[in-house]
Amino acid sequence: MEQRISPVDTFNLSVTPIVGELNHNHPSSTKQDPSSSSKLWNSIENNKKVEKKKKKKVIKTKSAIKEVLREYQVGSTVPIKQLRKKVVNKQIQQLEKQLKEKFNLKIHQPNKYYFVMGQDVKVLKKPKERSKKPKKNSTTSLSSSSIPKKNNVQKAQE
């Protein structure tokens, strides 16, 4: 029994200082820098994710309002109760804040409708359904069509 214990003790003693030396050499040069930078990157990415989530919620409320307004005629007023049927409960509070702010300021919105009497929406024009893909294609087609024309003119001059 004693013969088995003594080599194990010497083995442990011989290994521990080597591991200790390796740990002392590496953290100061390599291990601390990536850990601190990774923490910074993680915090930055988390902040970006939070900002994106906030923006998405606002977009959802606008799309829900547009869906409701498409059902009504131009010039009609839409009560909040009608909007609540289409909008999720979490978004109702955001809607009511927007209504109060915009009623006090009486600002016409870019979505072609404005708020009347604090809790009603008056439809000026029907919101148009616009997909983002045709807009991008129209701008890219203009730029791509103008580039070959310049190249053709240069080739003709040569």
Which key terms come to mind for this protein?
158 residues, mainly alpha, 3-stranded antiparallel sheet, 4 helices, 3 strands, 7% strand, elongated
Question: Describe it for me?
Answer:
There is one protein chain. With 158 residues, this protein is mostly helical. The protein has a domain at 34-126. The chain is built from four helices and three strands; from the N terminus they run H-E-H-H-E-E-H. The protein has helices spanning 2-70, 80-86, 89-105, 132-157, and strands at 77-79, 113-116, 120-123. It has a three-stranded antiparallel β-sheet. Helix 1 packs across helix 3. The longest helix is centred in the first third of the chain and has 69 residues, at 2-70. It is elongated. The chain starts with a helix and ends with a helix. Residues 124-136 have a biased composition (Basic residues). Residues 19-57, 124-158 are annotated as: Disordered. Residues 27-39, 137-151 have a biased composition (Low complexity).
How are the SSEs placed, and which strands pair?
Blueprint: H1 2-70, E1 77-79, H2 80-86, H3 89-105, E2 113-116, E3 120-123, H4 132-157
Antiparallel strand pairs: 1-3, 2-3
Helix pairs in contact: 1-3
Biased composition (Basic residues): 124-136
Biased composition (Low complexity): 27-39, 137-151
Region (Disordered): 19-57, 124-158
Please provide a brief summary of the model.
By secondary structure, this protein is mainly alpha-helical. The chain has helices at 2-70, 80-86, 89-105, 132-157; strands at residues 77-79, 113-116, 120-123. The protein has a 3-stranded antiparallel beta sheet with strand order 1-3-2.
